[in-house]
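Q: A reviewer asked whether we had any structural model of the full assembly, not just the individual parts. We don't, so I'm hoping you can provide one. Inputs are below.
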Amino acid sequence: MPELRTITEAAEFIRTGELTPTALLEQCLSRIDRYEDRVRAWVYIDREGAREQASRLTTELKAGQNRGPLHGIPVGIKDIIDVFDMPTACGSKRWANSYARRDATCVERLRSAGAVIMGKTVTTVFASFDPPPTRNPWNLDRTPGGSSSGSAAAVACGMCLGALASQTGGSITRPASYCGVYSLKPTHGRVSVDGVLPLAPSLDHVGVMANSVRDLAILLQPLAALDNDNGSNPYHYLSEMNQSGSMRFRQLSALPDFPATASPEMTAAFAALRDKTRAAEWAWNELPLPPSFADAPRFQHTIMAVEAATYHGARMARHPDDYPPKVRSLIEHGLATPAPHFVNVIKHHKAMRDEIERAFVDTWRIFATPATAGPAPSAETTGDPVFNSPWSYTGLPTVSLPFAWSADGMPLAVQLIGERYCEDDLLAVANMLEADIAFERRPLPL
Amino acid sequence: MPELRTITEAAEFIRTGELTPTALLEQCLSRIDRYEDRVRAWVYIDREGAREQASRLTTELKAGQNRGPLHGIPVGIKDIIDVFDMPTACGSKRWANSYARRDATCVERLRSAGAVIMGKTVTTVFASFDPPPTRNPWNLDRTPGGSSSGSAAAVACGMCLGALASQTGGSITRPASYCGVYSLKPTHGRVSVDGVLPLAPSLDHVGVMANSVRDLAILLQPLAALDNDNGSNPYHYLSEMNQSGSMRFRQLSALPDFPATASPEMTAAFAALRDKTRAAEWAWNELPLPPSFADAPRFQHTIMAVEAATYHGARMARHPDDYPPKVRSLIEHGLATPAPHFVNVIKHHKAMRDEIERAFVDTWRIFATPATAGPAPSAETTGDPVFNSPWSYTGLPTVSLPFAWSADGMPLAVQLIGERYCEDDLLAVANMLEADIAFERRPLPL
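A: Here is a predicted structure for the entire assembly that you could use as a starting point for your response.
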């Protein structure tokens, strides 16, 4: 059996009976044994419970029952998301032993679809900006990004084949990009946040990370079901993707007005990507953004600060020691924001969501930008979310894909942005782009 | 300022400005200082937080704002109910430090109405039958009853003026009766169980304890609001009660077929109560219960066992040490129950709920029975719920009132049962009965 990294491959081996959920889990656990002391991606690992789940799913397969492509797939859950019988610490000392009585809705969906819930992955404290203990597996001096630090690092190491993550600013796209894995931040509202610690509800998204675009589609499928009781879902992301040759166009819009500047290395790499894809028959145009878009990063930060202060203000006053400097500063910013300014920001937020939807009307349906300003910086920071926060602000779905390596051996990623609730188109185009990028997989330098 | 025991008195002193929430809280805290080492009613007391709440509510009053009769009233919350920033341990060792991220809906309602949330009162483990550390304040060798042990004992000692409790079998009425305090178990479904640990959802009720029937009405008022957002409520329990002289009848139905036998002392005391109230112009008749009612206590236990096993089964398998003998035995009973038997029990449950409603049609609207078989037994048990569990089963609202003292100095209580969703009638009649009982208040023998 080869070393498995993608859900797609593993599901096929499980389907044909060449691999059991138990054997796959042991591959993942052995990678944890190998790397975890240096990478520190996990805050809680339930080896015994995971083995029981895998064993039960192995028995089901022997009885002819296969729940689908997540049957027996080991996944990690960001530690702001409740998992039955595990603590939800959220990076807080006070909550280190706060056991969840039930699964968050998103976890329950993955569990029902057959995923093996291995444990909880490191989050920055309360999903904000304070650097976590986790390190980037491509260079242990670098940050894995945040706040979904552990999910990105664990998937990069193959400790799990997929992970739940969350984003309010750039907390899914940024760590996935720094760690060389694929990510999906769905449309705001697409995936339930029930059982997930809020940071700023108007901007909070649950999303996924994995090692291919198809894997992202497999993970999204149960999460996006419309109804908890019967799991109805008008889309089937994977089968739409399989028809992509005839259904979707190789067309991308660059955004010259995007209010963020990439490093010279990323700028050159992104230009090279445009050249390379043009050669593979992709068409690019340039889409002007509305001028008011320039305020999006700053106003996103205001909403995040004010809503974080609303949620955390009373608790921070009671337990100041539980709030490290960056989340403290975020909350203090929120507490100090005058309400009339916030009212104007909310107006801009609503107008921006409408304006950006109109931007799609007469143009191509997928935008592309660098996913980050450059490769992962040092571990003293979690990096800059500015390439991602406008998409948290507008609520549009995004996919990120690794596409190149920096001179110092770190992954670089591109970010695609789709229309509201059109994850099907976005994933199908991203899947075609992944094939044409043909990203060079490298062995971990660990 | 006199020693205050009832919400009604305290609210009047607060309204007139003779008492501040802060002074009232200090009275309660000093009773905790005096009694708690022997009674052990609390699992978590937040003195500092309670003082902050009381101080804020005192400031509000100075600014002319009075939220109503719960403004500044100290209350205790049974420890299966989530309170913001306090652990919800549920009597479990594993959950001793499991902090709740938000208030249960019922707690949020009391808090908004101005109550001061002092802390968490002892529950038996997972609200089942294992004896708790709490002792009966009328005799430290006796049980306070269970599962709402701490709520009953704390209210009896005046450590708080009201408390939230919950009942699946007899967990509100029994401890309130053993401890000589008043209780209300509302209609099943009347009060939200959001944020409350389930035992058996088909039977779980949130209710209240206090030191008078009027106090029960004051506590129910915000809990029974129909809508979380605007607090609309078609009833106003207290003002209905004030009109009771002209609105309600002094009529009670005894239940000779009730499937439980009281002790000779309780039987005699209950007969004496009938004589005494007849002298005060109460009329009594005797209502035959449908024969199928005889199965209610046994079938209630089956539903409780099966639903408890559904909720706790997986957790008990993982953490056997967290399950003491009686809750373990309850869950094992549930796990061993054959599904076809359970289907028949569910049919009976539904039929019984319909039949008992028809029993009200041609008769008087309030039933009365002893609240327990006799006074509180020794602390090695939590007592027998058989006088209460049929009303958990049928979901009808009940009020219990102390009415006499046993020969060995323990309180005895009567239980009134009302029509579904008619807490207004039930409380109004109970209020008249309280006046005519004229229960002899005694000083605590501590």
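A: Points you may want to mention in the reply: Chain B touches chain A at residues 49, 84-85, 87, 94-99, 101, 197, 314-315, 318-319 (CB under 8 Å). The first helix of chain B runs from residue 7 to 16.
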